[in-house]
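Question: I have long wanted to understand how a fold can be written as tokens. Here is the record:
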Amino acid sequence: MNLQSKAFTCGPVIDHLEELTEQQKIFWQKLFGDDSSATSIQRTDFDPISFQTFLPNIWMGDLIIDQDGTLRDVKVRLEGTRLVKVFGERTNQNIITDDSNESMQAKLKVSFDRFLIIVNKMYEIKAPIYTWSDYVDKDKEHLNSTSIVVPMCKGGNVVNMAIGYTEFMYKTSKSSIIF
């Protein structure tokens, strides 16, 4: 399937709360409760057991920051099974600097470009990001995705990790499947 981009939304979650799916609202509530000033979470506050139903759609990565404080890479530490089905296995891969033939940049150029926008925006504003994407191919097959990407702090108050939760809706001209 050769998907082409039709639309892309990327901004602070706090500006898109009405657009969250029901599962994203539950995920958000589990992370932040009623805190409307939500920014980042501590790695120790994320207990995978509490997020068990979300794990197939979660990724987590270390942010590689240079001495000047610039985001240089994201090393994937955890990638849920539903994400692997769409993006391929990326665990332990440096997403930004990997230029191999199997990299996200080589295999999924539009997704790679959007990933850069999302993680850079999240790192710049140090706040959770909401995204929504629509892809269409010539045979009228669609893949819509929506994500929340949250900055995390491990070992202090410096943002040095990220966690993302992504949902997909795949549609053909005959049916729709949410996964």
